[in-house]
Amino acid sequence: MSYYYVTKIKKINQNKFEVKHTIEELTNSNQLHDEGKKMKHCVYSYIGSCKHGKTSIFSLRENDERMVTIELNNRTSEIVQIKGLANRKASEEEIKIVSDWASINSLKMSPFVARF
Fold first, then answer.
1. Strand, coil or helix: what is 56?
2. Per-residue pLDDT tens for 24-48?
3. At 20, phi and psi to the nearest 5?
4. Assuming Cys at both sites, which of 7, 40, 88, 111 could form a disulfide with 84, CB separation 3.0 to 4.6 Å?
């Protein structure tokens, strides 16, 4: 299952667009390792769950800067974790972006994911 999400696209000129937010699936061990290293959390430890199709991991970015890492339970189509740098809780804005993306893709938000 692969999702890609873009929000707030602004046309700069005929051939150039400015994209504010993207949500991309991390599909290999190098991407998971890089996300964990840059975000200072243990997302790389989910490699086995990802390989077996139990979990999908996504990265929410703003202008290519990492904001939060998202864990999706593929069996339940439910977002079960949203973590920022060093496992900080997601902000209200980040949860809104992820929630909008989830809604568009018919995904659920776990009641354990922080809401404001």
1. strand
2. 999 999 999 999 999 999 999 999 9
3. -85, -55
4. 88
